[in-house]
Specification:
With 537 residues, the protein is of the alpha+beta class. It has 17 helices and 21 strands. Strands 13, 14, 15, 18 and 19 form a 5-stranded antiparallel β-sheet that branches. The protein has a 4-stranded mixed β-sheet with strand order 3-12-11-10, covered by helices on one side. A 4-stranded antiparallel β-sheet has the order 6-7-9-8, with helices on one face. The longest helix is centred in the C-terminal third of the chain and has 16 residues. It is globular. About 5% of the residues have low confidence.
Amino acid sequence: MRGATHARWAVCAAAVTLAATGCAGAGGAGADTTAVLSSSWADPQNPLEPANTNEVQGGKVLDMIFRNLKRYDPETGKAEDMLAERIETSDARNYTITVKDGWTFSNGEKVTSKSFVDAWNYGASLENGQKNAYFFQYIEGYDKTHPSGGKQSADTLSGLKVVDDRTFTVRLSQKFSGFPDTLGYNAFAPLPRAFFTDHAGWLRKPVGNGPYVIESYTKGSQMELRTWQDYPGPDKARNGGVTLKVYTDNNTAYTDLMAGNLDLVDDVPASQLKNVKNDLGDRYLNTPAGIIQTLAFPYYDPRWNTPGSAKVRTGLSRAIDREQITRTIFQNTRTPATDWTSPVLGADGGYKAGLCGDACEYDPAAARKLIEEGGGLPGGRLTITYNADSGSHKQWVDAVCNSINNALGKDEACVGNPVGTFADFRNKIAQRKLSGPFRAGWQMDYPLIQNFLQPLYYTNASSNDGKWSDEEFDRLVDEANAGQGVETFQRAEEVVRDNMAAIPLWYQNGSAGYSQRLSDVRLNAFSVPVYDEIKVS
């Protein structure tokens, strides 16, 4: 997911410990289950359709108002059954899914197998233009509902069949042993009938089956969510609701937190990292997360598709002093990246430290040589585009450009190009209006190496914003999904490396600060607050 949603560590006082619960503030005693907390936020890019939301801000809301077949445990990140009573297969291609009884949407409608099948068919339809349609590509019939060219020839996926109210079957077009673990992602959320019968009304006020309901939303101002008192799940909210307040500058959000006008900031701006421990003490969280920051490239611009452009990109990677930037700008809340995944996955999950090799090591002389051999910077200058409504991006983009300029011995070889808001930034990317590299943060959707590679680099994938394409990479991903596992995914990652499809910068910790009103605050490995656990006094 673009940031980009589960192990976590929390900084409590001066000690770093594995956190079973978050650090407690003054609100631990006498918590008020009806009290509402306020949290920083930004307007989502799109209306909150589950299959059309692939960025972090919209994802935060979907995590609050929906529950899916699986849920990623806030402590371990493991995909555990939520609405799924059973997911059975004998061949990793044909699955029988049984839905738990007793679940309803907040409008009282029962959640059934049809709630899932109808939602998935909607998401997979080319006519509906859903950004996450790609997540349904392995279900049989996707080539008919979402062809790569021309009009769709079917409205429903042939691989989905409703058996009864609580049972449906899924037939995939090839083996995919990791399929059940993807079903906690919000693209696979169930939808009520109102989504289809009164779509405009549903978009104005989405109805889900999670622990919160949306009470109101004013774009550019705030979204009011309140606890659903009749929520049937085991993870009932411990507060009365959450007010998500829109900020176009995280520094302003931090100032409001310090002034007592905001309860929670879930992205501490870089400019405050030197002060935050003194300001907040044990109410500051700094936890490893499944997030990587990269520089992506617009491959639809032919200047980045020349025979020598891979050398230019590798040269740029070698011109970036990651160690210095993460130390001075981010106060060690970031770690220099040496692959394209995240250490949160662990070795068994596919993380391979050092896979990038020399290509991610700072060497100005090697950088200059590679860029010259590759034909030089397209147009003679590099422009890095980023959204300006975060308190962090300008500082690190300027630092990256300074590093490149120093390595190349040219004062203006690299410059930053700020775009006002996150939504505007994402729209420019979607409209293919960029001619140079751009900020590309990725927050994992589920804890599999596949999720760090396929959505970003597979041909025409949902989050392949630069439109990079490589037949060998696609083939290796298909083989890995068919059951050849982590090592084959890592071979695909080596293709990304050899082409420097994107420049890995650093692994990102989740950071947050909160007021004395709150307790039991923690971040999951997506760096999203576990809102339903937060207590308010």
